[in-house]
């Protein structure tokens, strides 16, 4: 399958089935990196409403003309304003990367989702990950580690004296 058209010009010709799962494959405009991603059930449900012969999922109004990257971002922002919700295409990508980080994805898994050439940007996301969740996960790997024999919240009295 050709990965020629970029992410803002996607249609049914970019959808495949692999191992019983729908996937979408394209080449990202900004990086020229190919992406081959699973289609989540929520998106599959929405795509099922589109005619199977449609070459572009998102077109400029009723015309069969695709968007350029910057105009697609503007169109999306306008739809968010109309719906009275915050949002941008970049924000969606960032949210997706953050969800992958929080789920324990590797930097290369995140870079593959973002269609990046390397893991530099993924490193940025993993550094900002939910640190409390990661700390809990790290401590869980230690197994059974003893704690002080008294409460640490200060409600059990003064524990400054040596025992």
Explain what you see.
GO terms for molecular function: DNA binding. Keywords: DNA recombination. The protein has 163 residues and is an alpha+beta fold. It is built from six helices and three strands, in the order βββαααααα. It has helices at residues 41-47, 69-82, 89-102, 107-114, 120-127, 131-140, and strands spanning 15-18, 21-27, 34-38. A three-stranded antiparallel sheet has the order 1-2-3. The protein starts with 14 loop residues before the first strand and ends in a 23-residue tail after the last helix. The model has no long low-confidence stretch (mean pLDDT 83).
- Identify the overall geometry: elongated
Structural class: alpha+beta
Count of strand segments:
3
What string gives the helices and strands in order? Answer: EEEHHHHHH
Q: Rg from C-alpha positions? A: 23 Å
Strand order of the largest sheet: 1-2-3
Number of helical stretches of at least 4 residues: 6
Largest sheet: 3 strands, antiparallel
The whole-number mean of residue pLDDT values reads 83
Please bin the fraction of helical residues.
25-40%
GO molecular function, one term: DNA binding
Protein name: Phage integrase family protein
Keywords: DNA recombination
Domain Tyr recombinase: 9-129
What secondary-structure arrangement, pairings included, does this model have?
Layout lengths: L14 E4 L2 E7 L6 E5 L2 H7 L21 H14 L6 H14 L4 H8 L5 H8 L3 H10 L23
Antiparallel strand pairs: 1-2, 2-3
Helix pairs in contact: 3-4, 4-5
What descriptive keywords fit this protein?
elongated; three-stranded antiparallel β-sheet; alpha+beta; 37% helix; 3 strands
